[in-house]
Specification:
2 helices; mainly alpha; about 90 residues; elongated
C-alpha cells in the first residue's frame, strides 16, 4: 500500500536537479569543460518538464475522480420512509 500519493512533477524535477548538480560537480572537478550557458537550458527544461508532468497528473487524477463519483452515484435513493417520502 502506498504511504503517499505519487507526484511525477516532483520526481522529474528532482532528477533534472540531480543531473544539473552532477554537471556542475563534473565541471568543478575538471572532468568536464563546458560553458556555464549550457546549464541554463537544462534548468529551464527541467522546470518545464516537471510542470508538464504535474499538469498531466492533475488531468488524470481529475478524470479518475469524476469516473469514480459517476460509478458511485446510481440514482435517487429508493427510500419510502421519512419526511421526504411522497404521501
Amino acid at each position: 500500500m502506498l504511504r503517499h500519493e505519487f507526484r511525477p512533477g516532483r520526481a522529474v524535477l528532482g532528477l533534472s536537479m540531480l543531473a544539473l548538480a552532477g554537471g556542475f560537480a563534473a565541471d568543478a572537478a575538471g572532468a568536464w569543460k563546458i560553458p556555464w550557458a549550457f546549464f541554463l537550458p537544462v534548468l529551464l527544461g527541467g522546470l518545464w518538464l516537471s510542470a508538464a508532468a504535474t499538469w498531466a497528473a492533475y488531468l488524470v487524477r481529475r478524470r479518475r475522480d469524476a469516473r469514480k463519483a459517476s460509478a458511485e452515484n446510481t440514482g435517487a435513493p429508493a427510500s419510502t420512509k421519512g419526511s421526504h417520502a411522497i404521501k
